[in-house]
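Fold this complex.
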Amino acid sequence: MLLELNDLFDVKTIRQDFPLLHQEVYGKPLIWLDNSSTTQKPQSVIDTLTQFYKQYNSNVHRAVHTLGIQATDAYEAAREKVQHFIGANSASEIIFVRGTTEGINLVAQTYGRKYIREGDEIILSTLEHHSNIVPWQMLAQETGAILKVIPVSDRGEILLEEYAQLLSSRTRIVALVHVSNGLGTILPIQEMTEMAHQYGARVVIDGAQGVPHLSVDVQSLDCDFYAFSGHKMFGPSGIGVLYGKQEILEDIPPWQGGGSMIRSVTFEKTTYEVPPAKFEAGTPSIADAIALGAAIDYLTNLGMNNIAQYEHKLTDYAMAQLAQIPGLRLIGTAKQKVGVLSFIFEDISPVEVGQLLALEGIAVRAGHHCAQPTMQRFGVTGTVRPSLAFYNTYEEIDSLVEVLRQIKLSN
Ligand code: PLP
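Structure:
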């Protein structure tokens, strides 16, 4: 069974594409299980970055010379790759930003400032990353809006009935994580969006952990905004995407002002470009956007459904193995989840476990994962969090489990 899956997906060959994975740490082979934090890059992404700076580095959109045209074409081609990858209707719905955090702040500062008033309600879930809490809290403080929070079950699943109770004609925004970075829970976004839309609310999705693991189609999700980060999907850091429905992007004001986002400027008045340029003030992260396009090519070539299928089996295997370690408490056991394997030992702190794993070459995150309310819900200040990607193997899970057993025995 395991062999069959490995053969199908051929992880050994795939791993050859990732140079960083082939090194030793403290004399042990590196086992990279910190993928929710950031992912490693395939050679094609690294080559794309190098090629840009070696062969056609130029600013975009304003040049009439050859390299400028080449850079602009590649930058806009990357936008189209993103469009197709997430099933957007048009490339003009794709805004390049620095990452998920910037994408959500953009929505809060544009849509939010235009439409949110005192007494309006913004609904979030208990599972949000700080980047999908703090921008809304800041907006609420500015406007007098109220934040409401959807509770979760002991498995870390959204309580849909409670969500239904929170929705009302006062709800203006529902901001939800697609996949929880603390627990791995996949939220029923399509259903939750439909429920929000019945009250005329706009739906903002934090897709930072969705896009790397699931096949995402923003049109079938029908969300109004969807934000994600390049570095969590095997692309570079410093680049991310905010998708927004065309008519909303046309309606809302720009965020940052500067070059590239204008049509005309006088000291009296500025007129703005249409989306996406309206939201891309200044020189963008050109090379990073193009290399994000290379990451998308890589993922498309592997097939998001194949990735999801392989990771699903690997996650089931890992959860089952971890559950057998005496004294280990798994946190986040949703039926629909990705390979985020949060746990604690009651008598050893997460940071200590993380450090002991690091000495064995195993990289995991230990702490609150920028999701303190999630941790509070489960009565902990943090967890140990191994997190999987498609280049992880069954053998790596076995090594993790073996080291954890030793840690437990000697503490
Ligand atoms: N949302 C989730 C669910 C995340 O996991 C992260 C990063 O860990 C973020 C948002 C923030 O992403 P970035 O720091 O790339 O903006």
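The first strand starts at residue 24 and ends at 25.
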